Amino acid sequence: MLKNAQKNNQGDQLMYIQKLKLKFFATAAMLIPLGLFSQNVTIASPDFNTCESTFNDTNPIGQYADNENETITVCADGDPILNFYFIGFDLGEGDVLEIFDGNSTAAPSLGAFTGTDLANQNVTSTNPEGCLTLQWTSDASGVGDFGAIISCGPPCNHPIISSTIVGDEGNPLLLCVGEEFTLDASGTIFIGDAILESFVWDFGDDNLNTTSWPQVTHGFSEPGSYVLTLQVIDSTGCESLNPLDRVVYVSTTPSFTASTDPQVICVDGEALVVGSVTPTPYNNTPTVDFGDGIYIPDNEGCFQDTLTINGYDPGATIQDISEIESLYASLEHTYLTDITIAFICPNGSVLSVYSQQGVCGDVDLGEPVPADDGAPGDGIVYTWTPDTTYPTLAEACSEPDYTFDGTDSGNNLIAANYASEDPWENLIGCPFNGPWIIQVCDIVGADDGWIFEWGVTFNAEEGSIPLSFTPSFGTGCDSTYWSGNFIDNADPLCDSIWVVPTEGGTQTYTYNAIDNFGCLYTNSIDVIVIPKPDANAGEDVWYCGSNINLEGTVENGVPNQNYAYSWSPAELFNNPNTQNPVFVAGIDTVTTVYMTTYWTEDENCSATDSLNVNLPLLPLTGDLERMFPCTFELPYTVFTTEQNQTGVTYQWSFTNSDTTIVDFGNDPSAVYDQAGTFTVVYFEPNCGLSVSQEIIVTPQVCEILIPNIMTPNGDGDNDSFNVAGISFFDGSLLQVYNRWGNIVHEDPDYNGKWAATEVADGTYYYILTVNENGQEKKYSGSLTIVR
């Protein structure tokens, strides 16, 4: 588990303690990191002088024991002031640490401290010798732990960070990409009159904030695990030592699978839509890649590089060597006999994996450049694991199975999982969190080398907040569910649904997945819905005695989809199961045929349409013979009779002794100015059948004959006053008078007959006014009525 790697060359002043992730509990081991501190002592160590050490109770990797009684004197090394800063102090009930301001218990007592009295407190000498004596006693029950950092000079009253995430106390904090959160450090404690001087929020994503206090808001643009740190410096120049101790996981985008069976359905059909989601793990492997490498100069002492590991519970320590997976480094160096290689854990414990061995002679690490000119060669990854069957580097030097001919005059060690020279138990009690150091010392002149990459990996699970994680999805409908139209029902897991669309078109269904981070991810799949066919058998047709080619269509057919056709009655067709059949039967009555079409993937996705096969009608003919009228005004018009169907066309011709004309158009009438014979041919519109008829137009004598007697006795002879020829003249006026001059009958539209039923026998007088070609002509005379 690795994040926030830091590196320093020998001599760099790096306060590792600022990156620690430590909290102290009654049941937790007291862990003090050494980093660059030269010593790590306990209350049971002999008296010593120092200005740079860590200090623990009798058990640096666990709790002290009952019934302890220890005394130690520590003096400043060349400085008049000695200071203990207790980064942790949590004693069992009845246990006491008394501190004296001098080099013995006879010096003035600075206090007898119990419980958590000294947590985050300084104890400083005031005597000329710069010494403090500590007397420790534990009773027979109840244990705890304590630890301090020893330094010289006036003490720092280190500010104590107190930071929370607004609205969420989870650790790790689970976020979505782009989701913002707010850190609040308003609870940070400044000692005495000190105030805030500066601060650095480090979010672990290459983003720092030095302007937002006491709250800062941040969001992450990429999935991953991020360790949040905060460094505070007060107005006296003292730095915070306790960690922020928060980890953030940012959800990874999952992978989806989605399917629909079938993918194309008909309206009112059904499809099963199934989805699943697989979370994407986020893997954070401890490694430091230096790019072109870090140079190890020749014979210039010890080179150190630091890797800060975070992500485990505060105070979590290595309890068993099985929790260490490996230490590894990509190296190249000429002459292995020149160097030593060691790893230092955060509490200062050292694991020397290789110490200078003369037996290694000309054996090289990696494939170095032979000349000592600072040019990098090629690194080989060497790994040290607790359970390896391989020998140590020193043992492998003389074994041909572990070497190969290299670029120099000697052999090169192969990449393998080597054993450590020091026992792995040296790292028991080391904190997981904090600065891990690789130290390479070049103590013989003539050759240099390079480190290209190194790292630490753990197998530990208990007590850790690993920086690798995998989001999860629940099994309920609040975690995964489908959305879309026409969903019929969902199964209990909400990962599959039946859809029954009632509309055609493309229906989109979205699979929604909400992980345990609360992040919503979606994946969509389309179901193509074929509409019910809009069948069109075509227009009605006419059977004219020969085969008929029909053409059916699906008006709303979907591209790239296939449709089947069936015509009935099947016996009327030579190929009834095609889109364009041939009607072959002879019929003697109007016949209805049907076309059924369906989508080939679903016979229920169908529709039917019909058309009539009609028989043609011959046009009507009538009595078209007429006389040439005496009142005729040229030209005159000859008409046919009203027809039994629309679309009948006509072909006229005319002949007499002088003229033959065949061009009168195809109207139902002909116009001409002579007597003669018209011939008209009638054509019906569907099959082109025809009939013909002649119309004879003859001259007519237009003479009016007026009788002078009538005998209306019902014998059928002279029963009415009948004027022959009056029908040739429209609008004639008949007036009848008796002998005294009185009108007894008047008809303004006389049609040529008068029954005289309203008068008695006798002699009467008439006046007949006739409209002859626009001129009135009067006829008069006497009429005798005898019954």
State the total count of DSSP E strands: 57
Helicity, as a percent range: under 10%
N- to C-terminal distance: 145 Å
The total count of helices amounts to: 1
User: Structural class given helices, strands, pairing?
Assistant: mainly beta
Query: What does the average pLDDT come to?
Result: 84
Largest sheet: 5 strands, mixed
Shape: rod-shaped
Strand order in space, largest sheet = 1-3-10-5-8
* Beta-strand content estimate: 35-45%
Provide the low-confidence segments as ranges: 1-38
Radius of gyration based on Cα positions: 60 Å
What does this structure look like?
The longest helix has 5 residues, at 393-397. By secondary structure, this protein is an all-beta fold. 1% of the residues lie in helices and 41% in strands. The strands form 15 sheets. It has a five-stranded mixed β-sheet with strand order 1-3-10-5-8, with no helix packed on it. It has a five-stranded mixed β-sheet with strand order 2-4-9-6-7, with no helix packed on it.
Quick summary:
The chain is mostly beta strands and about 775 residues long. It has one helix and 57 strands. Strand 48 and strand 49 form a beta hairpin.
Key attributes of the depicted protein:
single chain, 787 residues, mainly beta, five-stranded mixed β-sheet, 1% helix, 41% strand, rod-shaped, disordered N terminus
